[in-house]
Amino acid sequence: MKVLLASAEAVPFAKVGGLADVAGSLPAALRRLGVDARVILPGYGFINHELYGVERILSFEFAHRLGLSDVTLFAAEHDGIPYYLLQSAPYFGLEGDVYSQWNWDMERYIFFNQATLAALHQLDETEGWFPDVVHANDWHTGLLPFMIRDHGAGDKWASLASVISIHNVAYQGDNAGGFLWHAGVNGRHHADLAALGLENNLLGIGIAYSDMISTVSPRYAMEIQYPYAGYELASLITRRAGDMRGILNGLDSELWDPATDAKIISNFDADNFESERPPNKGHLQSFARLPLRQDVALVGIVSRLAAQKGFDLALPSLRNVLGARDAQMVVLGTGEPEIEQAFWQLDQDFGDKARAFLQFDGALAQQIYAGCDIFLMPSHFEPCGMGQMMAMRYGALPLVRETGGLADTVINYDAADADIGTGFVFQWQEAQAVEGTLNWALDVYERRPGAWRRMQRRGMKTDFSWRKSAGEYVEMYQQARAKALSRLG
Asked: How confident is the model at residue 69 (pLDDT cuts 50, 70, 90)?
């Protein structure tokens, strides 16, 4: 089976969020299962061609409503995965970020969808490579399923299947109608889309026209069928529920491995962490200019500092807990100014207990995973979440809200049976719930060290690799392919 994943970002070339991790690691797992998985993404100007061995493979003119555009397709291989980078001025190839202003991004990514199909024609003619399935990801590539279904140029295109993965339904590429018109989506198409109420929504278009749909965790697949989590797309998602699969994101188990991680000062595994992990906590405390105390629980946060992540609940709770008892906190992240300011104020008010690093630092993130005792992730909603899995892999116990992928991955500690649990889970979206659960976790850390160590070991031994999830994607591709072939009669 041949699969082309289309994504706005993919490690190592361009990364803003978790979408890049999936697009960069899922294909490797698929290839281990015998799938010829490849990735296409925009050829952003900041990508270092020399560093990644990027080479031009073909150029062509692409005709669209506004005229002719010169498109260049580059190729690179990373960790055995073939990548295609699509450049075309002024959309991609100049200096700039992955995401820019809303109106410009609408125009850029609609163009990327159109040019991707043109590139498939070229790859078919020049290299003889044509996919069985196109795997779109989020709104940036949501037009692909619609365009594939509408292509109608021979059996090869008519049998091309499409799937779309919803990584975060809150970002939909809405108000796109005018941009679609400028891109040449004609009145007939608009009538079809208007009948579904989707003429303005790129993610909705992808959901409506794809053969199969996936989300990034089983719990999230259920949640987005309700208005509170699915927003205005909930009813459409419910109608397509029979074609939807909730497939948990995986971790790159070779990259995220405390036994080999060169960014931490003391390597460890599930067998020796009791003796080899503590130096990492001491190093983190020293770097953060906190007292070197193994007897005090250290709360770690590595996150985008956004309202979605539940920091309106966590900040008053942390203030109360830090003021009332022995505890430490280290936060790493950037985001909304008011949340950054609130964490900075905690740093100032509790200088011997709290430290805020308002920046992005990949090495420090891994040191926090390896050094903290409690990893706080109180999200209002979390489609999958990777931080809690990374934390468990590195021996930190996550404290999370029961939502999305957090509910699917963290097993709540059961005080009646010390051999159950990998973390601490609360349900209600209230600051008191965070505070009570945090105090509970601190009590267990201080009073039940044996139970704490057993939870750490269970978390470290939990298999969050892509192996199982990749197999579920293969099954979904097969179902999508069968649906596409059935349309041929």
From this structure: confident
